[in-house]
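We modelled the chain as a single entity of 367 amino acids. Its sequence is:
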Amino acid sequence: MSQQCRRRVPLLAFLAALVLAAFPAVGAEVPAQPRLIGSFIVPPDAGGEDATFGGISGLDYDAGRDVFYAISDDRSEEGPARFYTLRLVADAEGLHDIEVVATTSLLGKDGKPFGKGRIDPEALRFDAASQHIFWTSESGDLGKPAIAESDLSGHLLRRLRPPRAVRWGNGGKEGVADNLGYEALAIVPESGRILAVTENALKQDGPPASATAGSLSRIVLMEPDRPQSYTEYAYETDPAPSGALAFFAENGVSEALALDAERFVFIERAFALGQARRIAFYVVTLKGAEEVTGLASLKGRDVTPVEKRLWFSLGAGAFGIEPDNIEAASWGPKIGGERTLLVAADDNFGTFGQKNQFLLFAVPGMP
């Protein structure tokens, strides 16, 4: 090779690096940066006399009826376990109201509301094809954890059996950790497959997120009509916040949204005493990801988690707002020709002074 050719190689490599930086891999592409349209606080008495409005942990849009369904994580303590039907009052100038159209109790196969502590609802997705809702429970009668399907009257139709690894076993030493089960749920466009994500690692996979390390959450992708046929992946969360007052700190996956058949938005919710919350929105791709299907434990294994790339985050004054305990998110209707994203906070029924905060964003360029 001539000296002239040898000199060109580093230059070509440099130019190639520039191109790759400017045009990242398709699997890692993120939407345009969102713009905040407005925010709204729903009061606790908006749910009517029978149940306090609050505990919003899952949210999804029904385009045919132009309403949202929002599930409460109430374990039948503030009222019957339930989901709400909400209507958005918004335009390009702001989010003006969240109307509570109806409150619907979640019912067992016997047609009766679940008793106190019998379920722990978390995530919710509306399936337009069946006109049903899929929702998750972290504990109770349906199992630990559970993915359930109900009609819009709240009647339980069936539950989908989750992978063996996430179920409690070995005297409670294996399976989902307490309160760290399926917090996130998505429905894949066109195929209708269900994607569910644990908030943090299974007991046998590793510890929860700490100030020094993230946690390996489990992703399951399954066919609703063939739940025994599934694929599993690992997702590594960010570490929990650190600092002098962060003796209680946590971070985990609180929500998932489908972008297309292979890309999803995962929301990580981080909190530490004495610090502002950080809500991070990551684009995750399953394309080319390593499968961990059927592995009883990930501990001690060299597992490659799915790829993730930061889209945007809330906190530290971003968008001029202070985010509350964000747990739910849904794509919404177009406003001014732009797709919207609605996110909601779980107020924990006012235990820590939290609010039923709703934030509405416009996402330019989304179909």
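As a brief sanity check on the tokenised model: The radius of gyration is 21 Å. The chain has one helix and 20 strands.
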